[in-house]
Amino acid sequence: MVTALSGDGVLWDGGWYRHARRLDSPNFGPRPATGHALGDASTAPEIDLIVLHSISLPPGQYGGDAVQRLFTNTLDWNAHPYFKSIEGLQVSAHFYVRRDGALWQFVSCDDRAWHAGVSHYCGRDNCNDFSIGIELEGLEGDAFEAAQYETLSSLCAALAQHYPVRQIAGHEHIAPGRKADPGPGFQWPRLQSSLGWPAQYFPEVSAS
């Protein structure tokens, strides 16, 4: 089982993970307030879902800084023909795990990143409101590297130490029919075994 370092002060500072390389994205907003009836103080929803994605720009090409540029609105749309098809897109994720396991963070986990889009999971809509988005450098359906699983496991453990995480799912599970990442190449049983979390935390996928 992967365990996070003890003491939130060691790992977190205002929703920023101290073991990630920070690069601020402008594409974020506050999490919506709840509980404001009858003068009650408004509070943000519990951050209890982790959503996994896969991304590579251009698709299937690894390395470079195109993903970082996309999330910070500095991508040169003329640098590759594929970029014209996503020109003007404004998105972000909280975290990005490179093929070598290097970890980047673009948005504080206390804030709402723009990673899920139109989504629904376990009876709730708008998953951006209560989730943390993690992008894995990879191509939808392809395999991921051992270093990525190692970083992802450590990150998930640290998130669960700091936030009331109760579920983890793929983009394919919160937006079925619209999204299919990270896809069949992602080994959910491997992540579950590494974390030691109960099965009910995970989507219903094959154990093969």
From TrEMBL:
<keyword id="KW-0862">Zinc</keyword>
<keyword id="KW-0963">Cytoplasm</keyword>
<dbReference type="InterPro" id="IPR036505">
    <property type="entry name" value="Amidase/PGRP_sf"/>
</dbReference>
<dbReference type="GO" id="GO:0005737">
    <property type="term" value="C:cytoplasm"/>
</dbReference>
<keyword id="KW-0961">Cell wall biogenesis/degradation</keyword>
<protein>
    <recommendedName>
        <fullName>1,6-anhydro-N-acetylmuramyl-L-alanine amidase AmpD</fullName>
        <ecNumber>3.5.1.28</ecNumber>
    </recommendedName>
</protein>
<dbReference type="GO" id="GO:0008745">
    <property type="term" value="F:N-acetylmuramoyl-L-alanine amidase activity"/>
</dbReference>
<keyword id="KW-0479">Metal-binding</keyword>
<keyword id="KW-0378">Hydrolase</keyword>
<comment type="similarity">
    <text>Belongs to the N-acetylmuramoyl-L-alanine amidase 2 family.</text>
</comment>
<dbReference type="InterPro" id="IPR002502">
    <property type="entry name" value="Amidase_domain"/>
</dbReference>
<dbReference type="Pfam" id="PF01510">
    <property type="entry name" value="Amidase_2"/>
</dbReference>
<feature type="domain" description="N-acetylmuramoyl-L-alanine amidase">
    <location>
        <begin position="36"/>
        <end position="183"/>
    </location>
</feature>
<dbReference type="GO" id="GO:0009254">
    <property type="term" value="P:peptidoglycan turnover"/>
</dbReference>
<dbReference type="GO" id="GO:0071555">
    <property type="term" value="P:cell wall organization"/>
</dbReference>
<dbReference type="GO" id="GO:0009253">
    <property type="term" value="P:peptidoglycan catabolic process"/>
</dbReference>
<dbReference type="InterPro" id="IPR051206">
    <property type="entry name" value="NAMLAA_amidase_2"/>
</dbReference>
<dbReference type="GO" id="GO:0046872">
    <property type="term" value="F:metal ion binding"/>
</dbReference>
